[in-house]
Amino acid sequence: MTSISLKELEMILKKEQVIVFGEVHGTKETPEMLTHALSKLAEYGGFNLCLEIPKEFEKQPEKFFAQSLGDGRNSLEYLRLVHQLGSYEGVRIFFVEEDTGKGTKDENLANRVADIVACGGKTVIILGNMHARKKPLKFGSTEIIPAGYLLEKRLKKEVMSIALVPSRGMYYNHGIKKITEISLPEHANGFDHIFVLGEVSPASFN
After folding, report:
1. Residue 157 has what pLDDT?
2. Exposed site from 19, 43, 99, 133, fewest CB < 10 Å?
3. Do the strands 2-3 and 193-200 form a parallel or antiparallel pair, or are they unpaired?
4. How far apart are CA 157 and CA 75, in angstroms?
């Protein structure tokens, strides 16, 4: 695991074919940074962008962002990301959360993303940090098998994973909460790289 700069993150985006970001939902700064970095990537060519949003909103994203969801995913900052990146020729945006009636959320995320990767092209995935990890993790007696781990197994090739970690500040997830003191090794467990965002503030909503 290495801590990387914005320039190094942008180089990884240009070089790698499958990149998954793990975020803390509900900050302004994460989608703003990603909008900047992915807009620069779009200047070099198209790619697939997969977001942890229910598939049924893919054709009408404004309906998702108008909801009172609570967990921070439907922020105005992410709506701006969808609009800006969707304006680039060749950038294909997919909403990859899908309730198939079987399997876990992580299994369904991994399967949907794998099907998109199989159609060709560079693919960038943005998920909550628990889903993006490439190692199983335990909460008490419960083991969680993350989508990042399952995706790499299914694709049988490397998935580059990057943890986006705020160092301090506030975020919104079912209320405004404070970023607790971080342990970089703990946050980086299951990721190839870590990008420290610095101070963050709560996302904004309709």
Report:
1. 87
2. 43
3. parallel
4. 33
Q: Based on the structure, what is the number of domains in the chain?
A: 1
The SS3 assignment for 151 reads helix
Q: Is residue 186 part of a domain?
A: yes
* Segment 93-106, tens digit of pLDDT: 999 999 888 899 99
Cβ pair 197, 22 in contact under 8 A: no
The residues, any chain, with a CB within 8 Å of residue 55's CB and separated by 6 or more, are 95, 96, 97, 98, 112
| pTM listed for this prediction | 0.95
Task: Please give the mean pLDDT across all residues of the chain.
Answer: 93
Judge contact between 4 and 165, C-beta under 8 A: no
- Does residue 20 sit within a domain? yes
d(CA 143, CA 133): 13
For the domain that residue 49 is a member of, what is the CATH number? 3.40.50
Lookup: tokens for 196: 């420290």
Phi and psi at 178, nearest 5°, equal -95, 140
How crowded is residue 132: how many other Cβ atoms within 10 Å of its Cβ?
28
Q: Quick one: residue 107, left, alpha or beta (phi over 0 = left, psi -120 to 50 = alpha)?
A: alpha
CA 47 to chain centre: 15
